[in-house]
Amino acid sequence: MRQITANVFGFSGLMAGRVYAIIEADGISLVDTGLALAASKIVRQLAAHGYLPTDIKQILITHGHGDHIGSLPTLKRLSEATVYASAREKPIIEGREKPVYPPRDTLSGVARWMARDAELLPGTPVDETVGEGDVIPVLGGLHVLEVPGHTPGHLAFWQPQRRILFCGDVILNLFGLRLPFAAFTPDMAANRASVVKLAALAPDIVCFGHGNPLQKNAAQALEAFARQVKTSA
Known about the structure:
By secondary structure, this protein is α/β, with parallel strands linked by helices. The chain has helices at about 40-50, 65-70, 70-80, 90-95, 110-115, 190-200, 220-230; strands at about 1-5, 10, 20-25, 25-30, 55-60, 80-85, 130, 135, 140-145, 155-160, 165-170, 170-175, 175-180, 205-210. Helix 6 runs antiparallel to helix 7. The longest helix is centred in the C-terminal third of the chain and has 15 residues, at about 220-230.
């Protein structure tokens, strides 16, 4: 676990899907939970800094894909934390609906090879549904942004005073900024619009669902990527 900025930490060695810890005096909030195998690593890394699973008070979910909610059942059981997610993603997170993937016959090339059939995921109750304009009492107030495309109910979380953005999978930072994988993104046009929406925030720090956080010239990088996304649509 390494510090990104004051109060914000990222876990290491989780294989796929980034998980972030916001550590404050009244407890820990997680943004996403990674794959199912990540739970033990998250617990160990927190323990190395002197924290127990019961110190986790909130878990904020950007979207209901297995690499973001895989460890949620275990972490919820260990911590009894309040789980926040969008109303649209709630039935997926609770294991009552399958994730939404694009039909295989609409894909081509590598995306078609990567495509898989959606399956129900192990369910975990969502305690609080949130949407555009809501503010979660974490890090001085995390503003909820609806940013659909990669999933219909995808959320991002934004701290405007400190200009920190948790963007989930709207944008990936893998060998540079890029759009999410087409095989798992049912509405790429909506995702492109979400990229433009997030770039307009001009964040100082961006924490991605995949790839290292961006801490230098983040606003300029997102602005340039948004222009690229609009011109290539």
